[in-house]
Amino acid sequence: MRQHLLGFTLAPLFLLTSACSQQEGVIDSKNTETLSAASTSLNSYEKAAQLKINKLKKLMAKAKRKQIDVTREQSVVWFAEQFLKFANWDENNYDAVVKLFSYERYYKDKKEQLAKDLPDFERKKVIQILDKGIDDLSKELAGEIKRRPVNKVDWQNTKAQDNMFVSNGKPIFLYDYFSKTVGQPLTNKDIYNDHLGALYHGGEDLYPVDHDRAINSFLVREDGTFDEELMKELTRIPDTNIGFLVYWLMGIPQWVEEREPEVRKGRSLFTGFDIDNPLAREVWGKIIRKTGELTKGKKVTEVGFVLANEPHWYAEKGHWTQNFQEMTSISSYTLNKFRNWLRTKYQGNITKLNENWDTNFKNFKSVAIEIPIDPALKGLPIWYDWTRYNMDRSTDWFTYVQNELHSVNEDADTHIKIMPRMFMEDSRSGGIDTEALAELTTMVGHDAKSFGSENIRPGKSSKWIEKYAYNWGIVAMFHDFMESVAPNKINVNSESHFLSSGQWRDLDTRTSYVRSVYWLATLLGMDANMGWFWARDPDGSPEDRLEGDLDFFDPGLGGAFAGSNNMQPHVTNEVTQVMFDLNSFSEEIVELREQRRPLRLFYSETTAINIDDYMSKGYALYEDLFFEGFPLGFATKNIIEKQDNSNWDAILVYRNKFVTDDEFKTLQGYLNNGGTVILDSEQSLSLNEYGQPRKVKLAPGKGKLIVMPKGSDTKAIKKMALEQVSASLPDVSITADNGEDFKTVTWRTVKQKNGKYLVNILNLGHGNADIELSLKGSKNVNIKNLMTSNKLKSTFDIPSEGVLLLEVTPN
Question: What are the UniProt keywords, alphabetically (predicted)?
Answer without folding.
Answer: Hydrolase
